[in-house]
């Protein structure tokens, strides 16, 4: 049982670090190319740290529980990545399609780009976290 706690902690931290690192690269390179031209004045003039931190902490927990854990239980990086893609697609679809249905400036192009990004980012993050966790802790005890 003790090993499982360590496994989940390593899995969560790996998921969080990989997800945040890759997403920062995406946001840094795409904010002015994709988001600002579409959303314009709707974007906050300054980055708001607290909501961003809350999102990353919560999303990494969900991704760890729903995708990385499933991969660790099955012993398959492919399972972790596929479940990660499903979590990402579902979460990003919820956000983007709600925005597209309620915000006049939200475009289909932005929705499609975000859905692809969220799915790919979540798949890569879950797969990488699986791989890191297995290397650091080993397999998950199923007892």
UniProtKB/TrEMBL annotation:
Keywords recorded for this protein, A-Z: Membrane, Transmembrane, Transmembrane helix
Residue stretches spanning the membrane: 7-29, 49-68, 75-95, 115-133
Signal peptide, first to last residue: none
Pfam families, sorted: DUF2177
InterPro entries (UniProt xref): DUF2177_membr
Protein name: Transmembrane protein
Organism (species): Rhizobium johnstonii (strain DSM 114642 / LMG 32736 / 3841) (Rhizobium leguminosarum bv. viciae)
């Amino acid at each position: 049982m003790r090993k499982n706690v360590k496994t989940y902690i390593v899995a969560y931290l790996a998921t969080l670090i990989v997800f945040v690192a890759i997403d920062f690269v995406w946001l840094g390179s795409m904010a002015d190319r994709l988001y600002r031209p579409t959303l314009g004045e709707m974007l906050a003039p300054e980055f708001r740290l607290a909501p961003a931190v809350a999102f990353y902490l919560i999303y990494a927990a969900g991704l760890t529980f729903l995708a990385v854990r499933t991969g660790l239980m099955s012993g398959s990086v492919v399972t972790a990545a596929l479940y990660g893609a499903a979590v990402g697609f579902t979460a990003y679809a919820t956000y983007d399609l709600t925005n597209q249905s309620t915000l006049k400036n939200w475009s289909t192009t932005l929705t499609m780009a975000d859905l692809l990004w969220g799915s790919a980012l979540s798949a890569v993050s879950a797969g990488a976290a699986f791989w890191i966790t297995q290397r650091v802790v080993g397999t998950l005890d199923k007892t």
